[in-house]
Structures are given as C-alpha cells and as structure tokens.
Amino acid sequence: MKSIARSVLQSVKHGRAAWLRNSSAYSGKQRFRRLVLGIETSCDDTGAAVVDEAGCVLGEALHCQKEVHLQTGGIIPVVAQQLHRENIDQVVQEALRASGVSVAELAAVATTVKPGLALSLGVGLQYSLSLVSRHQKPFIPIHHMEAHALTIRLTHHLEFPFLVLLISGGHCLLAVAQGVSDFLLLGQSIDIAPGDMLDKVARRLSLRKHPECHSMAGGKAIEHLAQTGNQELLTFPLPMQQYRNCNFSFSGLQNLVNNAIAQKEKEEGIQEGEILSCVNDVAAAVQHAVTVHIIQKTYRAMLFCIKNSILPSKNAILVVSGGVASNQYIRKGLQNLAEANDFALLCPPPRLCTDNGVMIAWNGIERLRAGLGVLHNAAGIRYEPRAPLGIDISKRVEEESIKVPKLKKIRWLA
C-alpha cells in the first residue's frame, strides 16, 4: 500500500487527480490485474499513463506544447518532433513513478502509431519499440481515433454499439462503434477539421493581440468571445447542403469567413492585424456556422442508423469526443439534438477529450482483453500518418439520400 500512497501523493503534487472507474479504494487484490503503459505523441502533446483492467489510472503525465505553438502561430512538425524528443522519456518516467509500477510489472506497452503527424508519431514509436525490446514486453499499436472513441468506456459502463462523433483540431468523423476494433465509418471531413478552421480564423482575427485572449488557443478564444457576440451580424452559407451524406467540409467556410473579415476591416478602416470592433460578433457567427454544420451531419447519421437498425430505436447513445467536444456551445446543440431524437449524449471529461496517455493505455487494455492486435514481435511495425477508421460505408449513407428536418423543429439551441 505504500506504493499506492506514493502514487496518490505524487498525483496531487503534479495537480492530477487519479481517475478511477470505481469509487472504491484501490485494493491489494486489484494490483494483480494487468497493467498497460500508454504513450501518445500523435501531434503536439507528449502523454503517458499507466492504466489497469478495472479502469484505474494509476499514474499519468502530460507535456503540453501549446505555449510554443501559440508563439509560432501554429504547429510546425519539426518543432513538435524536437519537443517530443526532449520530453518523452521524462513524461514516461513521471507516469511510471506516479503509478508506483515498474516496466517489469506491465502486461504491455500501447502507443499511437496512426494517424497523426509523421514526425511526431515516429518519436513515440521509436521510443516504445526500444522500451519493449529492452524489457521483452508485448506491444500494442493504437489507432488514435479508436482511442478517442473508446475513452467513454473508461468513464462510463457502456456497451456496444454506439454512435461516435470525433471533432478535434486534426479530425472530424462520424462512426458507429460495434466493438473494440469494429467500426463503421459514416462520414468524415473531406478537407480540414473544425478545430483547425477555428484556429486559423482566430489567427486571421489576430486574437493573440486581444487582451482577453492572448494566452488562449484559437478555438478557445473564438468560444470565449462568441459568448458576448451577436451571431446574426453575419450569416454564412452552410457547406455541402446539396449532398445528403455525412461528410464534412470546413475549408470553403473558412474562405467565406476570411472574405467577410476583410470586408469588415475595409468598412472599419483598419489594417489586417488590428482588432475589429465587431470581433465578438464575427466569433459568434463563425462558431454558429460550424455548429450547425456539425449538427446537421450528426442528425443524418442518427436517422441513418435508426432506419437501418444499426442502433436501437430507443435509448441509443451518441458519444462526442476530441478537443472541439469541449466547446460548450457545440455541446449544447448536440445535447438538444440527442434529446430530440431519444439519444443519450455522453462525453468524456474535458481533460480526456484532448490528446493524452490515458486514452491510449485504456485502448491497450481493451485490445489486451479482447486479444486484438497484441504483438509479441514488433519488428516491422510502422507509423501511418493517414489511416481510415473501420469500414467506410459513407457511399451507402449518401445513396439513401436521407433528408434532415429543419433544425428549428428541435429547438437546438433553446
């Protein structure tokens, strides 16, 4: 029990509360459950965690690169790579120390190998392969999107199947989770992700110069300013209205927003780089357009799944995860959509919506229990910057041409 006390004390010291699936204390008996170390380096954060089969997070650590990338105006792959290299060993060792677990006690090491930034993925994979080779441990390669989708099963006792909406700075997709490694892909972004678009709009608005937003990431700054903005000042045509599918598009919307910003700058007689007097209204209008687009596509996914008996017609589940899932305006719209269609909306806590080692370790636990993708010889394993999730049935969705009712009928932001 001394190791458990050390784990708790170190967790408090570093400002991280242990995340327990059960409210009961961690017992000596539980110590014999299998443990997985998860390592995450798919983009700009270096994360590691040790999780057991009961869903107990024994120790975790995260090095966030946000401040560096805010200064450079976005994620520069070679910079992200170097920061991962500098921090990965420290992060992994911190997670192990907090857990009170040695590498020898691990059942396996799980690491993100797809999709993501190639240079970032390479750092995590190289480190992990060295670790498993040195300690003769099984290796579990993890699909980043699968990990996001299954995180909800760490925090909730949730059975398959369920509908998943993953929205982040790098991804946007709708899928049905039918099993640990069994997904049906309903649709995805054909260009950029919503978080990426919001970050780019924030840079175009020069929100780093705004006194309320100088330390905020772009999407968070948009959400903050939108709270006091009038979304009706500007209206933007919604993307892909002519296509009855579940695919998303945000690059065209971004271009429309950039043109509108340039027009407002001209009207106010200011140069690019100066703050518009109507910046709160622009933020509100942009956030609203992104939200409506996401909700419309999610609505069609719900109708398709019910119509084809992929999900139960009563008490179906919508899981929303990824960094953009922390946006409260978007979440409120999805909550009302879910309630209007007899779905329950479930979201992991905000700290597990963004990239972290916990979700990777938990995905490793899920795969270990199911006996899926556990490698006792990791020779030849490669990272994959692009990797689809599951079986793509998006064409079938489009062929059914399901019309989405007017959103006003569900009072989606009432």
Descriptive key words:
414 residues; alpha/beta; 6-stranded mixed β-sheet; Nucleotidyltransferase, domain 5; single chain; N(6)-L-threonylcarbamoyladenine synthase; 5-stranded mixed β-sheet; 2 domains; metal ion binding; transferase
Low-confidence stretches: 1-30
Strand content: 15-25%
Share of residues in helices: 40-55%
Mean pLDDT metric: 90
CATH fold-level assignment of the largest domain: Nucleotidyltransferase, domain 5
Question: How would you portray this structure in words?
Answer:
The protein folds into two domains: 35-155 and 353-383, ATPase, nucleotide binding domain (Nucleotidyltransferase, domain 5, 2-Layer Sandwich), CATH 3.30.420; 183-347 and 392-409, 2-Layer Sandwich (Nucleotidyltransferase, domain 5). β4 (108-114), α4 and β5 (139-143) form a beta-alpha-beta unit. The chain has a six-stranded mixed β-sheet, sandwiched between helices. Strands 3-2-1-4-5 form a five-stranded mixed β-sheet, with helices on both faces. α3 runs parallel beside α4 (118-135), α5 (144-150) crosses α13 (357-370) and α8 crosses α10. 49% of the residues are buried. The protein has helices at 2-13, 66-72, 77-99, 118-135, 144-150, 152-155, 194-204, 218-226, 251-268, 279-307, 328-340, 350-353, 357-370, 394-400; strands at 35-40, 45-52, 57-64, 108-114, 139-143, 162-167, 172-179, 182-188, 316-321, 343-346, 391-392. Mean pLDDT is 90; it is low at 1-30. The protein is 43% helix and 16% strand. The chain has 14 helices and eleven strands. It has 414 residues and is of the alpha/beta class. The radius of gyration is 22 Å and the shape is globular.
